Amino acid sequence: xxxxxxxxxxxxxxxxxxxxxxxxxxxxxxxxxxxxxxxxxxxxxxxxxxxxxxxxxxxxxxxxxxxxxxxxxxxxxxxxxxxxxxxxxxxxxxxxxxxxxxxxxxxxxxxxxxxxxxxxxxxxxxxxxxxxxxxxxxxxxxxxxxxxxxxxxxxxxxxxxxxxxxxxxxxxxxxxxxxxxxxxxxxxxxxxxxxxxxxxxxxxxxxxxxxxxxxxxxxxxxxxxxxxxxxxxxxxxxxxxxxxxxxxxxxxxxxxxxxxxxxxxxxxxxxxxxxxxxxxxxxxxxxxxxxxxxxxxxxxxxxxxxxxxxxxxxxxxxxxxxxxxxxxxxxxxxxxxxxxxxxxxxxxxxxxxxxxxxxxxxxxxxxxxxxxxxxxxxxxx
Length: 381
Fold this sequence. Notes:
Helix content is 48%, strand content 15%.
């Protein structure tokens, strides 16, 4: 009798998870590359009890594997399995915190930066393209490599905002100032570039030496002055839904009346107040992906939307290229970061690639103006 109870306690959760995955054409201990291979039978209870947090931590701990994590997650998200799983306590806790707290205050934002962007320039130098761009590349114009696609993205942004020699540019959330550097080199712009990351400022200043690019370690809320053009490439994901209106008000204040602003952000088809518990704990603390409704409400009364461009499918090859670079560089990184970090980072990159492949996540570029472009704005692709 005791053995029968024990068998049910193990097989029940396994059967339940296997049935769910089968809806996405993913098998437990199957032979196909995207199938889930179980290394520890405790996995099933952990996932059903802890949801996304349990699944990700179990992978980090080596409890399961898959030869194609990206394909596995693409299948799971296409099948909308996340809607068929009962909300776990960890997920409910994150939702409650995001509703009650402003999780993107200046102090919280600084902590988030420290835990992701300041972990080491060596990691990002090996993972990213030669211009150190940590946002979606643009493959639509025939780019064959990550370097080509990232340069195409920079050129696209410059053309969209009609950048001209001598224009003043504010680059909010600038990363290693890759866009500001390109804008100064190729278009003769004069840039002020803001990032809250100490490591990004240090390397960014080296990369921009001799160019009219002023890189400052500042939160986006500290921006001041008036500029011909304002860009925020990959910042809105860290602004937080409670601060979208404040962000749009700041962009408007810093933009000249005849200026243009470009906002480049990951986007969601539905409004939310946070991300899943695993991503929040290990990758992007306090982040949230904006929706069309949230951004529209925040922009109301501040801007005319001149153009809204979705090229989210291009994030799939971008992430796959980052993962390839990361895996190739791992022998140089192993001693500093350790195997558990490797599994965490691989999980982050390939899970994200699967999400964009499934079109579960989007990538938007918005061009906005304070009063509307006289005669109309000509969209650029």
